[in-house]
Amino acid sequence: MHTRKILVTGGAGFIGSHVVRRLVKAYPQYHIYNLDKLTYAGNLMNLLDIEHATNYSFIKGDIVDDAFVTRLFEEVQFDGVIHLAAESHVDRSISNPTEFIKTNVLGTVNLLNAAKASWKDGFDGRRFYHISTDEVYGSLGETGLFHETTAYDPRSPYSSSKASSDHLVRAYFHTYGLPVVISNCSNNYGSFQFPEKLIPLAINNIKNNKPVPVYGKGENVRDWLFVEDHAAAIDLIFHQGRNGETYNIGGANEWKNIDLIHALCSIMDRKLNRQPGTSAGLITFVKDRAGHDHRYAIDFGKLNRELGWKPSLRFEEGLEKTVDWYLANEEWLKSVTSGEYQHYYEDQYIKR
Ligand code: NAD
Ligand code: TYD
Fold this sequence. Notes:
By secondary structure, the protein is an alpha/beta fold. It is about 40% helix and about 15% strand.
């Protein structure tokens, strides 16, 4: 008998799959429902190790479809929601902003409405957890950190859509008393990340002797967190965070893009038995991203003080583990880059 029904949205994506795996394994008494549209970024091959677990179900669906979302909440009566489904790539948001508004803003409102309606008998023991990004705070100069109180100043269509959804989640807390919590995290890296984002893209290109594109001069700074540390923080905040609060999550691990790419190139030279310096020869400076945010850096002191969370890995260790994973999982990488992974749902869930 499962004591709690938890809905994870976007559970077939990069971070969502780590969250689903962690919850399915750590809480056999819960039933974890993974709702995902399976866009290009959703991949059920990220969850092969738990797909037959008795406390796990996959539901294919679109959070933008409000009738579907309402029906689902009526049918299943979830106790908690961990909302990760989103369009997540800044470059795609620059070429197609509308898709980001639909999924990130409308999709979030649909989930909020459905939760509110299905929890009309009371909010006790219930929780709506919205996963957001540090990009809502804008762009930093050479110094300073984003705090939970930093004014929102999003600059890309992606970060604007996430900022908008954060405001709506807070509005449902203040207006309707919906038990919500929000976290804003810095750049994640690790296994199962779609190779359009910097680290897996660079690993894949270096491996295949293809140019590694660095935007502008490579001087933009990002704070990097190992994805399993993010999943651990999400678990903690879902269970112990305070309603109506925001928690910042970060790695205390700032890197200029160009330095990070050089570090990755040295690891790849070593792993692939190449002459030192070989992979760095693939670095290619390309046109800068429009409106490219200069620097992100996070103060995660509140999460550390209140809930005792801190990152578990040094970056060098995390990067090494990540490279090892992509090199050992050639099949995954191949199926993702060829598009073959998109047939997995049909083969496994429809034709059977
Ligand atoms: P991702 O792009 O890898 O995964 C997103 C998932 O959402 C995919 O499985 C996709 O199929 C699904 N999805 C998209 N549109 C949907 C829709 N309309 N209905 C249902 N499912 C839909 O993203 P990610 O990197 O895992 O990010 C997950 C969440 O974490 C996002 O909300 C993102 O804003 C946030 N976040 C990401 C990072 C990061 O570094 N990747 C950092 C901080 C916060
Ligand atoms: P990305 O992984 O897209 O994450 P975000 O834009 O959300 O921070 O990019 C990380 C940084 O790397 C960002 O400053 C843009 C830069 N970048 C490149 O230089 N080359 C690339 O090919 C990509 C994808 C990103």
